[in-house]
Amino acid sequence: MTEDDAPGRRDIDVRFLLANERTLLAWLRTALALMAGGVALAQLAHDRPPLQAIGIGLLILGSLGGLIGYTRFRAAGRAIRAGRLPAPGHGPALMTAGIVTLAAVLVTVYLLA
Questions:
Q1: 76: which residues sit within 8 A by CB, 6+ positions away?
Q2: What tens digit of pLDDT does each residue of 23-58 get?
Q3: 1 falls in which pLDDT band (50, 70, 90)?
Q4: Which burial class, exposed, middle or buried, applies to 13 when counting CB atoms under 10 A from its CB (0-12, 13-18, 19+)?
Q5: Where is the DUF202 domain (predicted)?
Q6: The pTM is what?
Q7: DSSP for the chain, written as a single string
């Protein structure tokens, strides 16, 4: 009897694994976009420290987004292989709060300037 014939072995639908990988890539695209915006803002606002701070905030948020995405990718992969649902996590809520907060600060800085 081979490992594939072992009783209790679950077949993993490869579509779930590929969807998990696509989700990781979406997290990474978002992280790269945030970091690119942060670099652009920090470079173009060399004479305005508040805008430079927002640019650095975007760089940090983008870095955290990549880490959150990778952590969720690993957790979802383990859950898929174990035949259970992945835990929801707080990553998306944290990223949303960070983006909304930085956007509000950016609007405030531009309106007060």
A1: 20, 23, 86
A2: 999 999 999 999 999 999 999 998 899 999 999 999
A3: very low
A4: exposed
A5: 15-78
A6: 0.83
A7: --GGG-TTPPPPPHHHHHHHHHHHHHHHHHHHHHHHHHHHHHHHTTT-HHHHHHHHHHHHHHHHHHHHHHHHHHHHHHHHHHTSPPP--SHHHHHHHHHHHHHHHHHHHHHH-
